[in-house]
Amino acid sequence: MSPRKSVAETAATRDRIIDSALALASAEGLEGLTIGRLATDLAMSKAGVIGHFGSKEALQLAVLDAAVRRFTQRVPARAVGARPGTERLARTYDEWIAYMAEREGHGGCFLTSVATEFDGRPGPVRDAVLTALGTWTAYVKDELGTAVATGGLPAGTDVDQLAFELGGVVLAAGQSIKLHRDPQAPERARRAVARLLGAP
């Protein structure tokens, strides 16, 4: 086997482990990941699974990183063509709500679920969640600031408060979609976002 092929196969196996771990963590929580369960699901040895990461915590961080990348590709990336400010944010939140409501995949929002799971557990996983959510909040505040500067929102708008309220809508939507299975939750969330952003 050539070294190049070996590296490619190792990377492919690592990606396969992460995909399986993300599906499992979406259903049972990131802390619910077990090397034994993954090994069984993937028809691998426990040593074969953990050997790609070194520890359960490193696997959790890799899964979280994969979830952040998928979220970025699925949500804000699809709003890039929209006009900066409220139009782009409306499109972004629409994509996020659609993402949470999709029947395939995990349902709900993996990042907010993990944030709840690890909010009281100090350590690298919590730190990574804080970094990811901090990046998202900065994105939202930047777009809100642009909206204020361009007249899309009134001068003097409290950007921090508005970002907080938009975050509250997403948390409520996620719970209603995943826990209550409320079919009206996505549309309710979209109406709430539209009202907060001043859309008709």
List the helices and strands and how they pair.
Layout lengths: L2 H26 L6 H8 L3 H5 L5 H19 L11 H16 L8 H9 L5 H26 L9 H20 L6 H12 L4
Could you explain how this protein is built, in words?
With 200 residues, the chain is mostly helical. 70% of the residues lie in helices and 0% in strands. The chain contains nine helices and no strands. The protein has helices at 3-28, 35-42, 46-50, 56-74, 86-101, 110-118, 124-149, 159-178, 185-196. α7 crosses α8 (159-178). The radius of gyration is 19 Å and the shape is elongated. The model has no long low-confidence stretch (mean pLDDT 92).
Please tag this protein with its features.
200 residues; mainly alpha; 0% strand
Give the structure's gist in a few sentences:
The chain is mainly alpha-helical. It is 70% helix and 0% strand.
